[in-house]
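Retro notes
What went well: the complex prediction finally ran end to end.
Inputs used:
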Amino acid sequence: MSQLDFSTTLGSAWFPSPIFTASGCASSGKELAQFFDLRDMGAVVTKSIMTKPRAGRPTPRMAETPSGMLNSIGLQGPGIDAFLANDIPWLVEQRARIIVSIAGETAEEFASLARRLRGVAGISAIEVNISCPNVENRGQVFACQLDSAQSVIEGVRRTIGGDLPIIAKLSPDVTDIVSIARGVVDAGADALALINTVLGMVINPNTMRPHLGGRTGGLSGPAIRPIAVRAIYQVHDALPKIPILGMGGVSSGADAFELILAGASGVSVGTASFGNPTAIMKIQAELKQILSNKGFKSLREAIGFAHRPESSVR
Amino acid sequence: MAGINRNAAQILATIVGNKRVGQYHQILIGVGELVSQCRPGNFVAISVGGSSSKMILRRAFAISRITTSAKFGGTIELIVAPHGGGSSWLCGLPEGEQIDITLPLGTAFGIPTTSVNALLVGGGYGSAPLFGLAEVLKERGCRVDMLLGASTGSKIYAPLEGKRSVNSLRIFTEDGSMGETGRITTPIPQLLSELRIDVIYSCGPMAMLKAISDILVDGDVVHQCAVEEAMACGIGICMTCVLPVKNEAGKISNLRSCVDGPVMDGAAIEWDLVGKTVIL
């Protein structure tokens, strides 16, 4: 167990563990820090930050579904100024590794957010959230169209220069995720985050109307894990050299292992933290044990293992 | 803003009592030293359904009473109605069973430093934490009067021992099956002057909390209400349980009822904006 190399990389960024928070499921880390030391995980992926403070969508914002939940938050947040003044210094003080997630209404907003982050000390990578489903205009789900996805990533790449790795977060709600993945990599993404929540809806049988204030919401939790595994598998198959930060319904070490076998270099834990504040520590410990039990000397050997021919089975 | 639940801990705790009382269950949980951190108004979040459960989110329950016994150490009491899958699972647990629980969560009712006249207003099972609060207020020398209301008598929670810690208790049901017929909010305007009320403590449905705030809008009676908003995590990370609240500078923002509540200043909540889009 002690010999296992558990470290991973996303582009040029190195992390001692492949287990991360998922954007939007850990705020900026403070709330989980009372349950475990943030340094003990790969990195905190912050809630997607926008230029201005944002109140988000009306309540109800949540509906539990079998083995899952719908959320309709709509990117509530303090805006980049307060985020840089409060959240980043706090995370740096904790000595946590940080991936900042950004979201914009236009390609220009993404680029200007990237400009604000350029030169901020202590950030390991930038996640570009082009796939939040909780926006009024589906045209703002940039990851659903190749050209708009590319224009956002190009703008961020141009602004940020070559130093910070860019992770493009994609939506599973597309006909061909591989073509979107290839497009954003061509536009300058160093890594991909797969998958954002799946657009869903619940209708309340009592009121006979959509339950969520925003009507539609993003489905997360174990219910979507097979979709995540499929998306990661397809993209890793087509782009084996591009690191993937995998996520979608991971709540155990075995779940994380499944995403890694499909091709993920790192795994984000989101909804599982809602049900269990120490889920990240549990998943990390279980994953280490599984990798050792399977005879892996390093996490890296297991990445994409499911793609190897049968003869290479351990 | 409170920011985080600083005293919260996640523990495995033992059910030391589970008694069915009418349509609800009185559940006692041994939580040891953590009772010293628990205050009236705080809540807990419990993992439900066992390890293979399709219910992935914790269930939140208000702490109704806090006790320390020689046999079990520190215990908390929850009043749980088996409404849905999660609460039914919890109500079905035998004594001795262990549960995964996070506590204490959220803000507590503010306790006055002097003896004041307090009116406690509870709707349905929402009244449960008011009895623990009444005991604390009594110890402070406060006058404590209580109103309980529900649609029907079977939804009234009013334990016999709880009545000892109040000066008066009136019950209202909409169908007249228990106590007086009518809405719980009807007698409030008259009671405010009759009993010279300084503070109202309330918990129950949001419509009731709003109605009380509307009654108090022009006076200087303090309204501490414990809100009920659907939440996924209980610890401040999911951002689902928000309510529009105005700060001292008049700025409205969506605050999380799990860390900035559940006990909030009724006068600061923008009741007309609940469930609406807030423009910053």
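What we learned: Chain A has a mean pLDDT of 96.
What to try next: split runs per interface for comparison.
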